[in-house]
Design a protein that fits this description.
This protein has 193 residues and is of the alpha+beta class. It has two domains: 101 residues, no CATH class; 72 residues, no CATH class. The chain is built from four helices and eleven strands; from the N terminus they run E-H-H-E-E-E-H-E-E-E-E-E-E-E-H.
């Protein structure tokens, strides 16, 4: 397994001394929601287990940051011009590494149709303002999630407003990833309506 971390806690303590803001930043890595200031993020990454295989075009750190390649950044800019935030990052102990970026998908939609999908409200909240997708991680088939027409409009990559930690992409984005043979984590398709 590839262990990775943003380069030590020391530099970020100096850049962002407020503990509450550092916690907010960590949450933004996972949930999006707003833009990050470039001086609020790390600029260096250290791979604890370097390995010899090429890095994927997207991978995550223990802090929740998603790191993307130049190829994936270019595709995202082509599909969603100016919509996502990319913060430049270097991989210090991998001299052959191409440019990398911390990805911040802060665009949101409210496109899941709850009563037609396998979803549940978070038991710690009231109402349907904090939901989660109900699925078995071992099931490899399509997810039972229905989207409204809002899913077809706007960005091709987004966070679902009421589903914390969600990162969803359009069929067009998934097709472009496959056509360009980008190496990413396994994608799960929503069921066809």
């Amino acid at each position: 397994m590839l262990r990775i971390s943003l380069s030590g806690i020391g530099p970020i303590l100096k850049k962002v001394p407020d503990m509450h803001r550092r916690a907010d930043i960590s949450g933004l890595f996972i949930a999006g929601g707003q833009l990050l200031a470039p001086n609020e993020t790390q600029e260096h990454l250290i791979l604890h287990k370097k390995g010899k295989a090429p890095l994927r075009d997207i991978f995550g750190t223990r802090s929740g940051a998603m790191i993307v390649s130049e190829n994936l950044r270019l595709l995202m800019e082509e599909l969603d011009p100016g919509c996502h935030q990319f913060l430049s990052l270097s991989i210090d102990n991998r001299p052959d590494a191409a440019p990398r970026y911390i990805l911040n998908v802060h665009a949101t939609k409210d496109s899941v149709i709850d009563d037609q999908s396998d979803v549940k409200p978070n038991p710690l909240s009231t109402g349907r303002d904090n939901m989660y997708f109900s699925y078995n991680s071992y099931d490899k088939g399509p997810r039972n999630i229905a989207f409204s027409a809002a899913a077809l409009d706007g960005p091709h990559a987004w966070r679902e407003r009421r589903y914390r930690h969600s990162l969803l992409i359009s069929d067009a984005f998934a097709t472009a990833i496959n056509e360009r043979q980008l190496r990413i984590f396994p994608m799960r398709q929503a069921r066809k309506s």
